Structure formats: structure tokens, C-alpha cells
Amino acid sequence: MQVFVSANYWPVAETYNPVRAAVRRYSAISLQGGEIWKNQDMFIFLQYVRNCILKAEGRIMFDVNGVSEKIRNARIKKNMTQSSLADELGVSFQAISNWERGNSLPDISKYEDLCRILDINLEELLGFGAESKTISKILKRKNHEETAPVTVEEIVPIAPILPPEDLKDTLKIHKEQCNTKTGLKKLLKLFPFLDQQTIDIMVEDAVLGDISELIAAAPFLTKENMRKLLEGWQKNKPEDKKVSPGSLTALAPFLDREMFDMLLDHVEMGGNDINQIIAAAPFLTKENMRKLLEGWQKNKPEDKKVSPGSLAGLAPFLDRKMFEMLLDHVEMEENDINQIMALAPFASENSLKKLLEKASKI
Questions:
Q1: How far apart are CA 25 and CA 36, in angstroms?
Q2: For residues 236 and 204, is the Cβ–Cβ distance under 8 A?
Q3: Count of CB atoms situated within 10 Å of the CB of 59
């Protein structure tokens, strides 16, 4: 199969589209006008389009396609095979193949040798974007040259290509030289690349902006880190801090009782949130359950509706008073008799009569 594409087919003035941009750029640079694409070109092209789309969507920030093209073109210009380049760099030829297809990038320790072997400078290879300047700063520091400190914002896009120790050292220097606190949202993108000790150090001075950030960070944090972040979050205008029942449920497995109760004081019941209370129920004490239900009922109690199924889900966690309170909000639908049966072990005789009366009116 052959695919015919003209690079001139895509007008430059067209509204930006990552697929069009990928086709135009790939045709112009890699295929010298794109007259014919053979089968073996297709996988590289599709990988190229994928990276263009991910970059346009902000899901990757480094120009993977640009670097992969330059490595491939420079190797061919030097009349080297993938295997010979791999031997000189001390890596496998599969690594070179992955670099050239845009599947991965060399880690930062390989760039100086790669540039020397291919007779190109770092700017030629990485371009003049922010990421290449960050790598240049890190390499200068590794060679004991004086350079400006690297910020967290600069580190995030290149974290996937930094060896763990280099990333750790770069963050350590950042922490020593920058006196400002860093938002947890910025640090969160680095957590998958850090060990627990480094995460603990970075979180010491972190600031929690929104509770959703803590939900995303929770799997990486110790209980002590969670407590520090929550205390800092609560301290500034505590009366303005609001937490949804869903957010409390998402955090519950990572909280101890003290932290859970502290967040519970900030829970704001909006709309008909009864199903979110069901999800949180296994983590709630009877007293906490009562607080949430009273908050749920307080705002427009006449609009609050509960299905028999929802009441059945909550029943094992309710005392008699709470059960009766919710019973007044039960709204029956056709064929709800099976759900009434599920409530039987928890309901008094009078409660069952109420439910059956409601069902008989449908």
C-alpha cells in the first residue's frame, strides 16, 4: 500500500489543528514534500501525529517529535546504523529505535555524548524552547558551571528524562535557593518520579490550594504530610473552606479519624447528595452521620427525595432516629416492592406500614 500526500495540500492559513500540523510538518521535513509514503513510513508517521496531538492537548510538554527527527536525521547524516550509535553510547539498539520513533527520549546523562557523536550542539538537538534551556542549565550545574537555579515549573516537563538522582539533586538545590513556598498542584506532577523521602522533603513547604489537589496527591503522601497540608489549608479563612461529600469520600481511606472529623466540619451538602453520603458511610461514626444528614435536610427539606434503594444502602449505618428521619423523604416508584423488602430487617412495623402506604398510592 502507498499513501499519496502533497505537503501543499494543507493551506498554512487554515485554523490550527494538531493533525493537519503534523501532516504538514512531517511531509515538509521528513519526506521532502511527501510525494509517496510507503508502508514502513506509516508507523513513524502515526507515532508523530500522536505526539503532536498529545502536545497540543497539554498532555506532554516536551517536543518529542522534534528531538526524535533530529536524532534520526543526524545519525543518517553521519552514516551510522542504530546499532553503531547504540554501541558508542552504551545503550541497546532498541533504545535508539525508540528515540527515533518518538516512543521515548534519552535520559539527560546521554545528551552530551549524543551531541558529540552526532556532531550537533544541544540547541540544535533540543531547539530553543524552555525545556532545552532547563536541560542546559542542569548539565552546566553537573559540570560545576555557574547557572541560575532551576524552578519547579521548569523541571516538570523534563522530569521523565531525568535520572532519579539528578531529579532529586535538582529539587534539593531548588529548595535551598528558593525561599518561596510551592503549590502542591505544581509538585504533584513530579511525584510519580520521586521516592518517598524526596516527596516528604518537598511537601514540607508546600501549600494546598484546593482540596481536589490533595485527592490527587493522597496516594503519594504519608499521614503526617496529609495532616500538615490540611492544617495549612484550614488555617487561612477556615470559614470559607468547603468540601463536598464526594471529596471527603475520596480522601477517607487516606485519613485518620482526627483528620476526617476536621474535614467533616467543612462539608457542604449541595442538592440531593444522599448517594455521596452512602459512599462515605463506612468511614463515619454515628455522630458524624447525623451531622451530615442534618446538613442535607436543612436546605429546602421539602425538596429532598430518597429512593428505597438509597435508604437500604444507608440503613446498616443509621440509628432508629436517623432511619425514621430519612423515611419521611422516601419517594416510591413503581415496582419498588423488592426494595421495601430489603429494608424490612431495619424497619419497625410502623415504618414498613408507611412505606407500603406510599407504594399503594402509586
A1: 15
A2: no
A3: 9
Residues 6+ apart with CB under 8 A from 178: 149, 151
- 59 secondary structure, DSSP code: S
CA distance 358 to 273: 23
Amino acid letter at 312? Answer: A
| Beta bridge partners of residue 287, listed in sequence order | none
SS3 207: strand
d(CA 90, CA 352): 76
| Backbone Cα Rg of the chain | 29
Q: Render pLDDT for 232-270 as a digit per residue (tens, 0 to 9).
A: 888 876 667 888 888 888 898 898 888 888 888 888 776
- d(C-alpha 215, C-alpha 250), whole Å: 7
CB 219 within 8 A of CB 195: no
Quote the CA–CA distance of 336 and 341 in Å, as a whole number.
Answer: 9
Distance CA 182, CA 351 (A): 55
User: Which of the two residues, 274 and 290, has the higher pLDDT score?
Assistant: 290
C-alpha distance from residue 325 to each of 4, 112, 150 (Å): 71, 71, 58
pTM metric for this prediction: 0.62
Cell of 92: 541497546
Under 8 Å between Cβ of 309 and 339: yes
Beta bridge partners of 243: 267
User: Distance (Å, rounded) from C-alpha 344 to C-alpha 322?
Assistant: 16
